[in-house]
Amino acid sequence: MIRPPRRITVIAPHPDDETLGAGGTIARFAADGCAVSVLIVSGHLPPLYPPSAFETTRREAAEAARILGVAQIEFLEIPATLVHQRPVAEVNGAINQFVRATEPDWVMLPFPDRHIDHRTVFDASVVACRPVHAAAPKVVLAYETLSETHWNVGGIEPAFIPDFYVDISGDPLIKKRAALDAYASQVHATPSRSIEASEALAKFRGSQNGCDHAEAFKVVRIVV
User: Is 1 contained in some domain?
Assistant: First the structure.
């Protein structure tokens, strides 16, 4: 039996990935007293975005974190789509430092999907979670992200086939919706990246497991 986590660390490539992929799970465990920490690796910064875009998403991320019950949120401030251009040791080291500092029982990281930032952050996060010391996280899970994860080319690239689910029915789903609402600049009324699509995915994942709504994860490691 897996013990409920006392501390969870969520690694997000961009603002909103943590909410899209694990917002309901964050809300569920935070409500039970779990200390949840979020690291957002990259942001809407020059050269692709004006500085004002980063400040907007920073405010939105802080509000979403408040709604979900996140205890700590930090930003590495690497420009979006350019994470892979940073030295590997720099990205690995920054994520490893955050994981070591937060001492999580569980770590949630992005599935290596269509977005190059997601792939780079996945690789660095797995390195940070290596079981090379006694305090290494015992549960490491990869989450799915709308508009990215399911655009991988099956049979050629890794496919997201989940094997771990968290029931987010009721209040956790309500809080996830409110947190997505807080991301006004990121969550749009389009089929692939909307609140309706997020709730439809949660409904489908719940239907696979005998509950109303769920979030799905791919297990990287579980030690009991």
Answer: no
Q: In the numeric block, which tokens belong to residue 156? A: 């050629």
Tens-level pLDDT at each residue, the chain (224 residues):
788 999 999 999 999 999 999 999 999 999 999 999 999 999 999 998 999 999 999 999 999 999 999 999 999 999 999 999 999 999 999 999 999 999 999 999 999 999 999 999 999 999 999 999 888 999 999 999 998 999 999 889 999 999 999 999 999 999 999 999 999 998 876 788 899 999 999 999 999 999 999 999 999 999 98
Decide if 13 contacts 48 (C-beta within 8 A): no
Element (H, E) at 10: strand 7-12
Q: Find the CATH number of the domain harbouring 85.
A: 3.40.50.10320
| Number of independent structural domains in the chain | 1
Token pair recorded at residue 94: 């920054």
- H or E element at residue 170: none
Q: Provide the 3-class DSSP secondary structure of residue 159.
A: coil
Q: How many CB atoms lie within 10 A of CB 210?
A: 9
Task: Give the residue numbers spanning the domain of 48.
Answer: 7-222
Side-chain-side CA neighbours of residue 159 (13 Å): 5
CB 54, CB 89: distance < 8 Å? no
- Note whether residue 214 is domain-resident: yes
